[in-house]
Amino acid sequence: MQELNQVIAAYGAAWRETEPNKRLELLNQCFAETAHYVDPTAEVSGRNQLSDHIGAVLKDTRGRVELTSAPASHHDVVHFTWHMVAPDGSIMVAGHDFIRLDIDGKIAHLAGFFGDPVSLN
């Protein structure tokens, strides 16, 4: 089983890697072969589709993703926060990712959310 911090670090690094082969190499370390990824703008399956999605986002935004929290986990579920930084240093979007790990400790399903939930007050 992979160390959780290594899995999350590789995933975060994939969101900063503009070279497709290097990005796919990072995803091979952390993302299960048939894993599923969803966020408000995308739904993809497998490492190749996720690598392509990340590449398109990085090209379109010219931003970079930084993890902003340590992963919190219990059982096979993980939660962490991140933000995307624009080339000028401003924060473009922040969000939360929720992950389910497979038996090998790799990401089997990731659901990403942009921003914080709206307060009920």
TrEMBL record:
Q: Which Pfam families match?
A: SnoaL_2
Which stretches are annotated as coiled coil? none
What region holds the SnoaL-like domain?
A: 21-109
The identity of this protein, by name, is SnoaL-like domain-containing protein
Q: Which InterPro entries match?
A: NTF2-like_dom_sf (IPR032710), SnoaL-like (IPR037401)
